[in-house]
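Key result, reporting period 2: structure in, sequence out.
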């Protein structure tokens, strides 16, 4: 199994600088990861650099859905919905341990006016159920043979069974339809590890600080290692800018004006305890908000995820949740739910910025999530917009564009190709227990491990042979085990304490203390793996603790 350790990261930067590459991808979110994977499968030599951690931006702050974008049907964006539904179906096949069907309950109330963003409100609500039913029928039809299950209308008993927290007062009718749920960080890592298997060289905490050009075309990217301060000059025939909300800033590093305008829209999610908001395996759609959006209430890792907001502007480098964001989400939830939530019920928050392509006269919530692929200044290729679900087709189009530049024939090799982690799926736990010292792993831990690592689970379990301590839980209330910290450092490129506690695991989000209590334990494990001295380990713990309130709480 290919490793992605701190040693591999340093070697990747040295190799890219020494040998040059065909394609340098800037940005380690889901889009950049998918481009690197597609390009590697197509036979290009590929490098990827990311100024922070992989998936540390928007790609770890999503609603954790692989979906068609049902709210785009009233906008008549049928092509986008069809494209996303097809890609959703491919994700079910290509990442079956990460992307799974989930049922959504969609209620309609006596006061509903424009559910799902329908373009007009019928007088007295007459015909609304039929309109929604027709929209869901179209949603099923656009998915074609890749559809999960057909939508249906629910009885009151069905609603109670699926959504026990939903208020029945004024409920007119309800529907059930299906989409996909996923782990956004794990999906990004699966793409990166698939690219790695294809020969790609990957480096996080490596920032592009400038370019060298010749005859008006980029020849070299100037990259700074943010962990060591070392500078590298990486020659590349093609530069792909996949930096999301930072795409215009990367274009400007050429010394030429950026050719795009990105509208950044902040999306906030809340995590609350399932003890306060009882849920089943089904998710809930709140069909209408004051600003014409949808909201989702989704069972997630034993808790409940609520989101999202859509606020234009802000500091894209330091996204933060405000009390207004929390109030907006809780106020809308409390209109539809019997448990009346307060800020005290919020375990943690997530804030991130979505890159939306600006269109004159449209607010961000009205912008299409369709993506933009274009030739930027000095020959740079910029791919931006889109969403998690459509990352693969965005990558396919990007690499096809590069291949045309080279006069090469291109046919995507990723459409039906299983991502890294899917080769040995599903797991046989009886066979694994006979081969590896899995000890007293709880049922919750086994489920978590299987859904996180898929067919790579044996590599994690093999670590238990090095030390029985690696099979022990990190937090008695959560399913994570100590060996995951080692795995994150060796195989998933974790470089900092935050990388492990926020992204390789989600302890920072799921724990009421955001992981500060176990941070010294995790740092000690990482110190052994990454050759930290005691001072560095202590600094990591201090930095993590200092950042917790800003990253996972509410800004004052």
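The corresponding designed sequence is given below.
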């Amino acid at each position: 199994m290919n490793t992605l350790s701190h040693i591999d990261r340093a070697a990747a930067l040295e190799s890219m600088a020494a040998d040059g590459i065909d394609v340098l991808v800037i940005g380690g979110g889901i889009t950049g990861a998918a481009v690197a994977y597609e390009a590697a499968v197509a036979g290009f030599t590929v490098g990827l650099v990311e100024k922070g951690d992989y998936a540390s931006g928007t790609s770890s702050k999503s609603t954790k859905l692989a979906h068609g974008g049902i709210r785009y049907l009233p906008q008549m964006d049928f092509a986008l919905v069809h494209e996303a539904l097809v890609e959703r179906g491919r994700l079910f096949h290509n990442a079956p341990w990460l992307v799974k069907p989930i049922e959504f309950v969609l209620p309609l109330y006596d006061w509903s006016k424009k559910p799902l963003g329908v373009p007009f409100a019928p007088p007295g609500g007459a015909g609304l159920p039929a309109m929604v039913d027709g929209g869901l029928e179209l949603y099923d039809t656009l998915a074609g043979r890749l559809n999960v299950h057909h939508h249906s209308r629910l009885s009151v008993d069905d609603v109670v069974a699926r959504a026990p927290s939903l208020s029945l007062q004024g409920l007119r009718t309800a529907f059930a339809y299906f989409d996909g749920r996923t782990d956004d960080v794990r999906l990004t890592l699966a793409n990166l590890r698939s690219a790695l298997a294809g020969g790609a060289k990957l480096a996080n905490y490596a920032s592009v600080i400038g370019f060298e050009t010749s005859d008006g075309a980029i020849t070299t990217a100037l990259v700074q290692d943010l962990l060591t301060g070392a500078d590298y000059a990486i020659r590349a025939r093609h530069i792909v800018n996949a930096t999301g909300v930072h795409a215009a800033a990367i274009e400007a590093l050429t010394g030429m004006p950026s050719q795009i305008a990105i509208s950044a829209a902040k999306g906030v999610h809340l995590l609350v305890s399932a003890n306060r908001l009882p849920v089943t395996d089904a998710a809930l759609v709140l069909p209408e908000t004051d600003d014409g959006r949808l909201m989702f209430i989704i069972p997630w890792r034993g808790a409940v995820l609520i989101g999202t907001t859509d606020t234009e502007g802000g500091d894209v480098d330091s996204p933060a949740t405000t009390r207004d964001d929390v109030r907006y989400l809780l106020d809308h939830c409390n209109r539809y739910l019997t448990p009346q939530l307060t800020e005290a019920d919020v375990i943690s928050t997530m804030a991130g910025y979505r890159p939306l392509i600006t269109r004159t006269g449209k607010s961000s919530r009205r912008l299409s999530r369709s993506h933009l692929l274009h030739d930027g200044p000095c020959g740079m290729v910029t791919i931006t917009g889109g969403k998690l679900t459509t990352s693969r087709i965005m990558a396919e189009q990007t690499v096809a564009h590069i291949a045309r530049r080279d006069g090469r024939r291109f046919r995507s090799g990723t459409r039906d190709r299983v991502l890294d982690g899917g080769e040995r799926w599903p797991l046989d736990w009886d066979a694994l227990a006979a081969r590896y010292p899995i000890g007293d792993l709880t049922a919750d831990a086994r489920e978590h491990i299987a859904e996180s690592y898929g067919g790579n689970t044996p590599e994690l379990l093999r670590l238990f042979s090095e030390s029985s301590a690696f099979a022990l839980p990190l937090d008695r209330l959560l399913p994570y085990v100590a060996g995951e910290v080692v795995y994150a450092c060796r195989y998933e490129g974790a470089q900092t304490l935050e990388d492990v506690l926020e992204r390789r695991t989600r302890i920072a989000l799921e724990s009421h203390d955001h992981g500060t209590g176990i941070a010294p334990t995790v740092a000690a494990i990482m110190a052994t793996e990454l050759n930290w001295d005691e001072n560095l380990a202590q600094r990591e713990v201090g930095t993590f603790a200092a950042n917790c309130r800003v990253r996972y709480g509410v800004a004052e």
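Residues 359-368 have pLDDT under 50 and may be disordered. The CA atoms of residues 117 and 292 lie 6 Å apart. This case is discussed further under Risks and Mitigation.
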